[in-house]
Amino acid sequence: MATDLTAAAAPSEAPGWVPLGNGTAATRSGPASPSVGRVVLRFVLANLIAVVLLIAGGLWASVGAAEDEALADARRTTDLLAAVLVQPLVSDGLTRGDPAAVVAVDAALRGRLADTAVLRLKVWTADGRVVYSDEARLIGRTHPLDETGRQTLRDGVTRAAVSDLARPENRFERSAGRLLEVYGQIDGPRGQPLLLETYSAYDEVTERRFEVWAEFAPISLVVLLTLVAVQLPLARRMVTQLRATQQERELLQARALDVSTEERRLIAGSLHDGIVQDVSASALLVARAADDLRATGAGRRERQAAEVLGQAAGALRESVGSLRSLLVEIHPPTLERAGLPGALADLAARLRPRGIEVRLGVPEDLETEPATAALLLGTVQEALRNVGKHARARCVDVTVQQRTGRLVLEVTDDGIGFDADPVVRRPRAGHLGLRLLADRATAAGATLAVRTAPGAGTSLRLEVPTP
Question: Are the C-beta atoms of 270 and 318 separated by less than 8 Å?
């Protein structure tokens, strides 16, 4: 058998057999071609997922933008309070802790603070002493300023952040929940910097987030859904055109195969009715001339001529046999006329002149589908060709058996065999051999396997599922 083969990724069911092609597994595992509706549905789902992701990304971006805007609003409010309300009320008495000054400031601020979103207000000195707060228990207490407060006193830039309610100076605000803390700078009566700290509810940031998202989401949703709606007919049209192109390609392939088969039949018919008949007639004429010369009992020269004519007649008969074998290879006419057994007998006759005995074990009443018969015949043809070229065999057995759910073909020779594993892993470049058979079997939904070893001959098995 030939040693040029390609393994398929299918396990062998019997020990010793090396799988070459498993079309049954490929058929089972191959995905069905999706319908146009399914393709469009997948397209819609993919676009909807993209819409959801884009809206989620927009929400995330709007949350950041809303928070930045809410912080900016809080900073502006604190700056306004510092300039309009707090700064004019700061005096030496307040910074010294004079109770009368504190009461006066409290009386001036408390009513006005009630009209703002500020929940707590504190005025600090640079050393961390609270000179005023609307929470009287904080006035006069000293706490270390955090880094944000110290930075604001240094550069005068108003800053906002989420309040750290774990700090001791914030213990009276813990019941209010999450708060937004803003630091601003005001000038003391002697020009010294004082720190103004305000607290407001963080819910304003959350509300601002929703407002920004509510403005952004409908516009984005409408734009994205419009885009999907515009793409839907385009996608359906594209899929329909692809389907039509695929069907047209399959139809052209089928027509090309039919044309090829018809051309092979015409060529075979022309050779059979033309040159084969002429060579056959010439062989008969030359053989008859040789017999006539021998029958006359003429001299030595005539006998020599008769011998040469006899050799020529034998060569012509061998040429006729070769031509008939070629006709079987091009287009086996007996496959249509006499069925698979007759076509296999024609193939077997090609090896007998080489001294190779071919024994056929094929039921005479075997009936198969035309495609199955062509697959079996092509497999036997390639196998016998490989036997003649490589196997150095003296005998070949070709058997076809009808089993439950499958048709089994085996071609076994007593030749030299080979080591299948290295050949399967590294097929020789430039050779087709069993690789073509494996591809053809896989395409037909059949399985192909080989069993061989050096000096132990070779067996080739083809299993074709049957209804």
Answer: no
In the 3-class helix/strand/coil scheme, how is the chain assigned residue by residue?
A: CCCCCCCCCCCCCCCCCEEEEEHHHHHHHCCCCCCHHHHHHHHHHHHHHHHHHHHHHHHHHHHHHHHHHHHHHHHHHHHHHHHHHHHHHCCHHHHHCCHHHHHHHHHHHHHHHHCCCEEEEEEECCCCEEEEECCHHHCCCECCCCHHHHHHHHHCCCEEEECCCCCHHHHHHHHHCCEEEEEEEEECCCCCEEEEEEEEECHHHHHHHHHHHHHHHHHHHHHHHHHHHHHHHHHHHHHHHHHHHHHHHHHHHHHHHHHHHHHHHHHHHHHHHHHHHHHHHHHHHHHHHHHHHHHHCCCHHHHHHHHHHHHHHHHHHHHHHHHHHHHHHHCCHHHHHCHHHHHHHHHHHCCHHHCCEEEEECCCCCCCCHHHHHHHHHHHHHHHHHHHHHHCCCEEEEEEEEECCEEEEEEEECCCCCCHHHHHHCCCCCCCHHHHHHHHHHHCCCEEEEEECCCCCEEEEEEEECC
Alpha-carbon distance of 149 to 152, in angstroms, equals: 5
Measured distance CA(101)–CA(336) in Å, rounded: 121
The amino acid at residue 37 is G
Q: What are phi and psi of 377, to 5 degrees?
A: -65, -45
- Structural domain 90-201, CATH architecture: 2-Layer Sandwich (3.30)
Q: What ranges do the domains of the chain cover?
A: 1-30+333-467, 90-201
In this structure, the strands spanning 357-361 and 395-403 are parallel
pLDDT tens across 332-344, in order? Answer: 655 666 678 877 8
* pLDDT at residue 71 in the model: 79
Q: Which residues pair with 452 in a beta bridge?
A: 458
128-153 pLDDT, tens per residue?
999 999 888 999 999 999 998 999 99
Query: Is the full-model pTM beyond 0.85?
Result: no
CATH number of 1-30+333-467: 3.30.565.10
